[in-house]
Specification:
The chain is of the alpha+beta class and 587 residues long. 52% of the residues lie in helices and 11% in strands. It has 24 helices and 17 strands. The strands form four sheets. A six-stranded mixed sheet has the order 12-14-13-15-16-17, with helices on both faces. The chain has a five-stranded antiparallel sheet with strand order 1-2-3-4-5, sandwiched between helices. A four-stranded antiparallel sheet has the order 6-9-10-11. Helix 21 runs antiparallel to helix 24. It is flat, with a radius of gyration of 30 Å. The termini are far apart.
Length: 587
């Protein structure tokens, strides 16, 4: 059963979208609206627009848009009613009983409950006789009892059905554990525990829910780490280990490590902003998530080949997310954990403060590829370095880091500047050509991004958009729409939206964009947000409505006339073919 519309109206009235978005995006006020870097894609220049008067958001980069409910749906990857529940809890409203979430929400809640009970079981076993080996391993790694408790670490016994049996006593069957990723089904249909004889690391999201697990062996067997598979509550590309703790850090900078143990050791040493990605390389989703809480990132990966490669990949991802990036070089130890144990906390703090600017780090990695005593390789180094430096946004940065590369290769800064300028001109030429290609097709810029929503008649659709905007701005205009309905629209999407808003206006309900969240899909809402974000004034609404309706009905008549003309043409062609066949038969 759908949620009561008046409940949704009250919920949206209590939810200020600027306050909501500000919890995850740094917004800057410009005029009557707010701008920030989009939380849904990586960008440096803010293109994410929040309009308080219309209680909507729109990103002019990736195209996403909508109201408060859509924002929570997109940010948390939640279905409609789950997003409503999050907002209701936020403003202290009770969800209607008959508006209870569907089976998908019940399944999600069940999986979270299973994970919570599994985490409790693993933690209890760590401190029981069957967990002695796991406890000894973690203590050898230098973890205190307090740290074990703070992170909820545990142990999975060396049993095929230890967890299955434990949770069966609480009413969960094997299929439930399969759904949660805690059990595995063999080819012959036998179901058994996924995690066996491993120390366990619960993965907790920023809302404090246990969403998955990582398990580590205590010897050299493989795989060294085993992680939960993706489930309806867990996606390794969208979650970060220990961010639930790190997000409250006062450090102002996140320390990105390679794994659970490095992160936990740093926290124990007092570096509470350490996090790790979950069994996968850093993704753009990770970068966007971290940028919600931190302005600066220090990459503290291992210094081996794999660590260098991972660092090189992470730098542009974090930079695109709008973060200042530095790279930690751990000397005298293989990783941060070993460094702290050997040299102490203060030495590591000093090392953090001396961490290298990411540009110098990348220049050093380029330099390692060339023998600078050879003139040919020196030229190749400078050309590759020029490509890197030319991508920097600031002329000052280009001069400084170009000078660093020149010094490394033993050439003058002026010579390097010429090389950087040439590379920069090449980039600008390429960007200009791309923009020219876009400008040559202005009509395509007016089309929805989704091909499934494309307009058949752009002139009519633009007028239809105008009527929608006026309704969103003033529901009282519904009675002045000249009897036009969405059936007369050339765009099915705009017609549906117009009919829905008209109906809501007649019932005395809100006609803001956010009110459409339940009835329209995400791509549809993205485009409707694009429509709503365009300028429109109600000052001369009466004349504007007449003009818009005239265009819509005029274009409809033209289409109808063309269709009739097409029918006449087909009839004439058919008659001609029949006559031709008759004549040929006579001959």
């Amino acid at each position: 059963m759908p949620l009561p519309e008046r409940f949704l109206d009250e919920l949206l009235a209590r939810t200020d979208i600027v306050d909501l978005v500000s919890e995850s995006v740094r917004l800057t006020k410009k005029g009557n609206s707010y701008w920030g870097c989009c939380p849904f894609h990586s960008e440096k220049t803010p293109s994410f627009h929040v309009v308080p008067d219309r209680q909507m958001y729109k990103c002019f980069g990736c195209g996403k848009g909508g109201g408060a409910i859509n924002y929570v749906m997109e940010l948390e990857n939640l279905p409609f009613k789950d997003a409503v529940a999050v907002l209701a809890q936020r403003v202290g409203m009770q969800m209607p009983e008959f508006g209870a979430s569907p089976k998908a929400r019940e399944r999600r809640e069940k999986l979270l409950a299973i994970n919570k009970q599994a985490a409790r079981a693993f933690h209890r076993w760590l401190n029981a006789p069957q967990g002695a080996e796991g406890l000894a391993y973690l203590q050898r790694r230098g973890l205190s009892r307090r740290t074990l408790t703070n992170f909820g670490l545990g142990f999975a016994p060396n049993s095929w059905d230890g967890l299955i049996t434990e949770l069966a006593a609480q009413g969960y069957d094997k299929r439930d554990l399969l759904d949660a990723g805690l059990a595995v089904s063999s080819k012959d249909g036998r179901i058994y525990d996924r995690f066996r004889n491993r120390v366990m690391f619960p993965i907790i999201d920023v809302r404090g829910e246990v969403i998955g697990f990582g398990g580590r062996v205590m010897d050299d067997s493989t795989p060294k780490y085993l992680n939960s598979p993706d489930t309806p509550v867990y996606n390794k590309s969208r979650n970060v280990f220990a961010l639930n703790i790190a997000k409250t850090s006062k450090a102002g900078r996140v320390i990105l490590t390679e794994g659970y143990m490095d992160t936990i050791s740093l926290h124990q040493a007092g570096f509470d902003s350490a996090v790790a990605s979950l069994g996968t390389a850093l993704t753009e989703e990770h970068g966007q998530l971290l940028a919600r809480y931190f302005k600066e990132a220090i990459i503290a990966y291992d210094g081996d080949g794999a660590g260098v490669k991972a660092t090189q990949r992470a730098i542009p991802i974090l930079e695109k997310a709008g973060m200042k990036v530095r790279v930690l070089r751990v000397r005298g130890a293989k990783d941060p954990d070993e460094f702290i144990k050997t040299y102490g906390r203060e030495a590591f703090l000093k090392l953090l403060d001396q961490s290298e600017n990411q540009v110098d780090y990348r220049l050093a990695q380029i330099q390692k590829k060339y023998d600078l005593s050879d003139d040919g390789q020196r030229v190749a180094f400078l050309q590759e370095a020029a490509q890197l430096v030319s991508a920097l946004h600031s002329a000052v940065e280009r001069e400084i880091y170009g000078g660093h590369a020149a010094q490394a290769a033993g050439v003058t800064p002026d010579a390097m500047k010429l090389e950087v300028d040439r590379a920069l001109k090449g980039r600008l030429r390429k960007a200009k050509k791309q923009q020219e290609r876009r400008d040559l097709a202005p009509a395509s810029q007016l089309q929805p991004k989704s091909k499934s929503l494309r307009y058949e008649n752009i002139r009519s659709a633009r007028a239809e958009e105008g009527l929608l905007r006026l309704l969103m701005l003033d529901p009282g205009l519904a009675d002045r729409m000249g009897g036009i309905t969405g059936e007369e629209f050339s765009s099915a999407l705009l017609g549906r939206a117009f009919d829905r808003l008209s109906s809501r206006a007649r019932e005395g309900l809100s006609t803001r964009l956010a009110s459409l969240a339940e009835d329209f899909g995400r791509e549809e809402m993205d485009h409707l947000a694009q429509v709503a974000a365009q300028p429109e004034s109600v000052a001369n609404s009466g004349r504007a409505i007449q003009d818009y309706i005239a265009v819509i009905r005029g274009e409809r008549l033209l289409r109808s006339g063309q269709a009739q003309g097409d029918e006449l043409l087909l009839a004439a062609q058919k008659k001609y073919q029949q006559k031709k066949a008759y004549m040929e038969e006579k001959q």
